[in-house]
Amino acid sequence: MKRIGLFGGTFNPIHFGHFLTLQDVKAEFSLDSVFFIPCAIPPHKPLTMIAAAKDRLEMTRLTLAGYSGFEVSEIELARAGPSYTIETVLHFKNTLPKQTKLYLIMGIDAFMEIDSWKAFKNLFRVIPMIVMTRAGQVSESTDLQLRKIENFLKNKVAKGYCFSTSKLHFTHNQMQPVFIAKVKHVNISSTNIRTLIKSHGSVCNFVPAEVESFIKNRGLYL
After folding, report:
1. Residues 83, 86, 91, 93: what is their CA dihedral angle, to the nearest 10 degrees?
2. H/E/C letters for each residue in 103-136?
3. pLDDT tens digit string along 71-125?
């Protein structure tokens, strides 16, 4: 039985922080592969701030090239209209072998906004989630982040979620489990990278050389 993680985002642009944290998650949860899924039309972000979907897809491919166990899916670019996670998850569930174990991976910030997503409660019915909490941050301890997740689950999703300290996950008798992955805080953000590029600064420490060259050649984020 294969274990596959699904990790979506705008990747505007993708950077080392995305890849390094997903490497850790892949190892911790013994995933056979992780699909990076660039969003075509994000429902909650202004398109004026985002590079063309085909450019973000190519930067994702350049970043993951040569790494086994990491794949790029263009399913959201192939689908017309806004990119809804529930539709992407159902696509994978309907096209992969039935015995495949799927996990939806996201950061805690995205998770805390999931109630604004289309049919968000259905996600909790159809796929286990892996939520990445940030270790080593002074502003929020791991315990505080766990309490925020627990309160969110009970108030926004369904009462009855219980936390298991042995396996570090939340369980529910009618919903899929929500697992916690403690990842190192990587001080890289796409926003800061775009700001650096706009001021003609170097981003060689934050993205692969191939991605930096692609950004320059395409004139992105200027």
Report:
1. 150
2. EEEEEHHHHCCHHHCCCHHHHHHHCCEEEEEEEC
3. 999 999 999 999 999 999 999 999 999 999 999 999 999 999 999 999 999 999 9
